[in-house]
Every structure is written in structure tokens, then in C-alpha cells.
Write a structure and sequence with these properties.
By secondary structure, the protein is of the alpha+beta class. The chain has three helices and two strands. Strands 1-2 form a two-stranded parallel sheet.
């Protein structure tokens, strides 16, 4: 049985835009808002949101996920290590 494929996902950014709206709807503002929000993210926060979005994908019938991680200066993005850990644990 075929399943859905999520071809581009950033686990460290999953559901983060719910915290601050991109009022203009432009890519430029989305990048600015995301950069601002990244400074407030914690490893636990990223973990919880990542698990939440992965569970929702599985419940919707997704069988494959191609995840991407941004590598920013450590202070700006604590999510990189979590994303790799999550991906390797999910693959088992």
C-alpha cells in the first residue's frame, strides 16, 4: 500500500510560526520572523514540536519524510543535534 511522502520538512521549525504571525505572508517576513523565533528555541521545545509533527504525519498516512536541518551558530539554533538524533532514532 502506497503512503504519502513529506518531501521537505524542517523539524526544528515545526509549528513555530504559531508563536508569531507572518502578517504580510511574504517569504522575506517569514525569514525575519523565523530568525527572531530561533533565538528563543530550546532543545526540549524543538523535541516536543518535532514529535508532535511527526506523529501527525504518521496519523495522516505519511510513510516517508525527507527532513532538513539548518546549521546556524550554536546560540541561534539548538535544534541541529536534536534533528539528527530524532532522525536516527526514527529510522530504527
Amino acid at each position: 500500500m502506497a503512503g504519502f511522502v513529506e518531501g521537505h520538512l524542517h523539524l526544528e521549525k515545526a509549528n513555530v510560526m504559531q508563536r508569531k504571525a507572518n502578517r504580510s505572508g511574504t517569504l522575506k517576513e517569514a525569514i525575519a520572523v523565523t530568525a527572531e523565533l530561533k533565538l528563543t528555541l530550546t532543545r526540549e521545545d524543538i523535541r516536543e514540536r518535532s514529535i508532535q509533527v511527526l506523529r501527525a504525519l504518521v496519523q495522516a498516512g505519511t510513510t516517508h519524510v525527507r527532513a532538513h536541518a539548518e546549521f546556524d551558530p550554536p546560540k541561534a539554533s539548538p535544534g541541529s543535534k536534536w534533528c539528527w538524533s530524532c532522525a536516527s532514532n526514527s529510522a530504527r
